[in-house]
What does this fold into?
Amino acid sequence: MTRNSDIDLNAYVDGELTSQERVRVLEAIQQYRALAREVCELNNLKSQLQLAYANPPGIAACKVARASRHWLMLAVGLLGGWLVGNESQRRRTGWWYSTRRDAARHRLRLTARRRASSST
It folds into this structure.
């Protein structure tokens, strides 16, 4: 066999050789037991692969994966919106501030607004 014997053997197993190349490979297989053993292993591997992919997961499996991604994105969006909405609500109403000074300033502003609105 030539230096491309692995390629030739795989092509032989897959049935991709011309008739002349096929005869040449068959003669080499008859002469060398190691090649015959390798062709047998390649045939076994090919049939195992065909058996493993006899019923590949189809479009339904892809649709399920895509649908679960959409639900995850929706959940993350809703949670993010809820968190951002709550933060802005807390800042408006004054129940969350980074420092006590910010809270005190806010209370003073609220008191001033209440006095201004009650006097008018």
Q: What stands out?
A: Residues 59-93 form the longest helix (35 residues). The CA atoms of residues 80 and 87 lie 11 Å apart.
